[in-house]
Amino acid sequence: MATWGSISLLDSNSPLMEQLNFFHDHTLMILILITVLVSYIMISLFFNHFTNRFLLSGQMIEIIWTILPALILFFIAFPSLRLLYLLDELYKPSVTIKAIGHQWYWSYEYSDFKTLDFDSYMIPTNELETDGFRLLEVDNRIILPTNSHIRVIVSAMDVLHSWTVPSLGVKIDATPGRLNQTHIYMNRSGLFYGQCSEICGVNHSFMPIVIESVPTSHFLKWLNSNLNN
């Protein structure tokens, strides 16, 4: 079970990631059925000694193996197009944050509050606490409210980066001179980890992302304490 868990997708913490998991299982089931069917036909042909020297054509079977793959592609394409639409659709956001990639750290701005911005660096291994995750902990986490639509605007100051949080189904490029945007919706409180997944230099893997999802009341208290300081 441990090996299977290490190669499967992360537990979903947002509705979009749940839909991505469902689509993954849906596509995987279709591929398994195709693989089993083709393997059975190949094995049966290997051990089949019957021949028909008068067989010149098989129009019916050719029609079947032309139409059937097309129908299978429709069953895969329609859920995929629906997911692409949902991933690009931006609802009315409650909070907007801006993530800017640097070599090699992230800086964040809460666009709704002009004075709230900070840099987020990875904590070195020798400074980690006993319950910290190596190469994943940061000195300043992103604090966001649970059950709220959040817009994330992503850009970069120097080279290409990629702002990625797998458990939320978010992966968006940070391109210099360009603003890309996505949205996240966290349906439970917790810590969600991510990393830069673009090869942006020698230290690109040391650009972790940590989102701390908290209830709205805790988020407002955090805002007040930081804005007053």
TrEMBL record:
InterPro entries: CcO_II, CcO_II-like_C, CcO_II_C, Copper_CuA, Cupredoxin, Cyt_c_oxidase_su2, Cyt_c_oxidase_su2_TM_dom, Cyt_c_oxidase_su2_TM_sf. It is a multi-pass membrane protein. Residues 1-91 form the Cytochrome oxidase subunit II transmembrane region profile domain. GO terms for cellular component: mitochondrial inner membrane. Keywords: Copper, Electron transport, Magnesium, Membrane, Metal-binding, Mitochondrion, Mitochondrion inner membrane, Respiratory chain, Translocase, Transmembrane, Transmembrane helix, Transport. The chain crosses the membrane at residues 28-51, 63-87. Pfam families: COX2 (PF00116), COX2_TM (PF02790). Its cofactor is Cu cation. It is found in: Mitochondrion inner membrane. NCBIfam families: CoxB. This is Cytochrome c oxidase subunit 2. It comes from Culicoides arakawae. The lineage of its organism: Eukaryota, Metazoa, Ecdysozoa, Arthropoda, Hexapoda. The gene is cox2.
